[in-house]
Amino acid sequence: MKNEILRMENITKIYSNGITANKGVYFSICESEIHALVGENGAGKSTLMKILFGLEQPDDGEIYLNNSRISITSPSLAIKNGIGMVHQHFMLVPSLTVAENVVLGLEPRNKGFFDYKKAVAITEELAQKYNLFVDPNSIVEDLPVGMKQKIEILKALYRGAKILILDEPTAVLTPQETVELFNQLMHLKNSGHTIIFISHKLNEVKQISDRVTIMRNGRNVGVFNTSDVSENDISRLMVGRDVVFKLDKNIKKLGKTILNVKNLNYTSETGKKVLKNISFSVRGGEILGIAGVEGNGQRELVEIITGLRNYYEGEIVIDNIRINNLSIKEIRELGTSHIPEDRMVYGVAAQGTIEENIISDRFYKKELNHRILMNIKKVSDISKDLIKEYKIKCSSSKQKVSMLSGGNIQKVVVAREFSSNPKLLIADQPTRGIDIGATEFIHKKIIQLRDSGTAILLVSADLNEILEVSDSLIVMYGGEIVAYFDDTANVTEEELGMYMLGLKRQSHDEIGRVIYE
Amino acid sequence: MNNIFKIIFSTSFGYAILRVTTPILFSGLGAVISDKAGVINIALEGTMLTSALTGVIVSALTQSTFFGVIAAILSGIFVSLLLSYFSLNLKTDIVLTGIAINLLASGGTIFILYLVAHDKGISTSLNSKVIPNVTIPLLNKIPILGPILSGHNILTYLSWISVAIVYILLYKTPLGVRIRAVGENPEAAESVGINVNKIRYIALCISCILASFGGAYMSMGYVSWFSTNMTSGRGFIALAAEAMGKGNPVGTLLTSLLFGFAGALSNNLQSLRIPSEFVQMIPYLATIVGLVIYSIRKTNMLKYKKEVQNA
Q: Which chain regions cross the lipid bilayer (chain B) (predicted)?
């Protein structure tokens, strides 16, 4: 074992919205090692690293650098202590040159003027020393992502970082760029730097890291020498379930196909292929779950089906009507409901009242209007009924939504979306960040809706939810469907984990079963 | 028509362009700096007006041109602090704050003028000083160019030098690199330990200092008195000049000259038998036309960029 360089002890962080991101986490890294930090979304990796880099303050716990206790209250203090971070979203100034970006904030000076030549020389010297070749005079906005990442690493090194935190560095890279990055990281390690490598990609973790810390639900569930554990071991520890609760479900009564997605391809604004040849269908009375680590195309898929995103290839049919050229309103009129992933952005108008939010999808309809004025009494009655039915805790139907708790805000969304008698419901992370009581309530409502014949597409990163609520499920990885299970009862979480992390994939025929006409 | 050409192609018209350009150029450069720092300085107009009055009053009281100019600049700094404190510390909307400051300056200057000069329109009762004109030796001997370029107010020459100073400040000093970084990606700047608010304070301060030179020029050079709302929109014309000059000091110099041309034309055509209301409209019309052309070009560029990306 090499010398320990940094240790975080008993780190606890509870966010102001009540979510506990870290619970007594112990984390330790050694000199010149590459240490992988893995875990699902929401496992607490990012929070732990934000604490280490001074972006968040822990509620409890200590940080020791070379065995002396330090407190890191700001990123500049972290930098002073030799800790550097390469953020997932690059912190670069696009119109400045590479050299200017590298030295920004610590500019070399010559008689009070900015010494650009020196900046170029510094950049070249660092680039040479650490094998991170960049052209110091290029303008950053013209460079590819891989180059930008190198500049970020150079920035940290120029500030004297000995410990480098890389937050999912390969997420934005091409395979070739990834290989190059790994060579550079090995080089950095051999020159005495320590690298913390956050990732979901287990093959990369195996390939590059010396040790691996696995986090789940805000806890450290194990530290291993990477060579001692297999990818399957890591996957099991990452996605293992903690609490299991059972839902009572009737046997599904299948109706006709409501949603049909055919050969859907989508390339994002940045030119990345986000969805590759997606085909599936959902029948009435069925809950089809989409499992997968976030960022594998689920969000784009949902946004395309609900009309929030355009310019895709392929065909989407809802209840025998092709929706490719329809507006969001027209798609909703077909009987589509949507529980969006981000309830504060797409789900509610936080400054509006409960009533206003509940009628926001139907305010224009005849039954709510008297000629040019709204039928206020009707609006109020509908809202009061829904508040009762969905057990929304509030002082009145005229209360502002922003005053409610997260769970009750979500119930407002659910009440609106479920009460329009949808033929198709798209539920994207319907219970994220809300308490168990509200979660259970929403799950029951989803199943009720299914029993009344609605086709439901459930997207969730929460394995409990996926396995308990959905009838059948597909797994998305890298923008593709990699697995289909027609009965969730026969799926184990280990198996699911392997598909989610890209360790396994089904044959074309197996996946093809998810299409009905 | 012939008369118009006779006016335009005279050396005195060339001289007039430069004379009219000066305050727009100062303010335009001020707009460049604040814009680069990502804080739009709508208060340029109010700053000019405030410093124009301050210059007149203090120079009359002290009987010193120098102290008049210094006071004008100090008043500009005061306005910038007001703007910065509200928009950066108290997080008010900077555009609304700027508008409020402009209204305050518009009414406030009349109020103070009345207190000091006992007149609500003009400060001629005060014996205020003017900043002298200088004849540049050798240059004034050159035919055509001499009469155009020589014999201007000291501040006119300072405004030309300011173009270089602003350029050097933005592109050759550590502060300039930080100003540009803060304006473009404040989070990136913050992540490397730059105090974003501090940089913006400094940028707004420099911006208002430049504008107050413009203001001092108005009342102590262009004319020798302060009159109500004498800046008549020059602060806004300067914002247009900055936008059309693509936020570049040299570009802003060129577009300021364009507006200077429109202004000089408007001044000179008043001697002809064209309705003065129409003639006085020219600089503002030029601003609108200029901004429209600028926007069309910008949209086309964006379209072109997108097409290139898609190809």
A: 12-33, 39-58, 65-88, 94-117, 154-171, 201-226, 278-296
Domain layout of chain B by residue ranges: 15-230
Look over chain A and give the mean of its residue pLDDT values, rounded to a whole number: 88
What is the distance in angstroms between the Cα of A151 and the nearest Cα belonging to chain B?
Answer: 13
Tokens at B310, concatenated: 């898609």
Task: List CB contacts (< 8 A) between A93 and chain B.
Answer: 180-181, 184-185, 188-189
Inter-chain residue contact B192 with A159, CB threshold 8 Å: yes
| Per-residue b or e along A241-272, where b marks 16 or more CB atoms closer than 10 Å to that residue's CB | eeeeeeeebeebeeeebbbbbeebebbeeeee
pLDDT computed for residue B149 by the predictor? 87
Q: Which residues of B touch A79 (CB under 8 A)?
A: 193
Q: Reduce the secondary structure of B10-61 to three states and give it as a string.
A: CHHHHHHHHHHHHHHHHHHHHHHHHHHCCCCCCCHHHHHHHHHHHHHHHHHH
* Residue in B with minimal Cα distance to A159: B192
Q: Which pTM was predicted?
A: 0.74
Q: Is this prediction's ipTM beyond 0.85?
A: no
* Distance in Å, alpha carbon of B181 to nearest chain A alpha carbon: 6
User: How many Å apart are CA A73 and CA A482, to the nearest integer?
Assistant: 43
Spell out which residues of chain B touch residue A106, defining contact as CB-CB under 8 Å.
Answer: 192-193
pLDDT of amino acid B276? 76
The reply to whether A4-239 and A257-335+421-511 are identical in fold is yes
Please count the residues of chain B.
311
**A107 in B contact zone (CB under 8 Å):** yes
User: Cβ of A232: how many Cβ atoms within 10 Å?
Assistant: 15
Enter the CATH code of domain A4-239.
3.40.50.300
| Rounded CA separation B53/B231 (Å) | 11
pLDDT over threshold 60, residue A245 = no
Give bridge partners of residue B153 from the DSSP assignment: B133
User: A257-335+421-511 adopts what CATH topology?
Assistant: Rossmann fold (3.40.50)
Phi, psi of A83 (to 5 degrees): -110, 125
Contact A107 B187 (CB under 8 A): no
Q: What are the boundaries of each domain within chain A? A: 4-239, 257-335+421-511
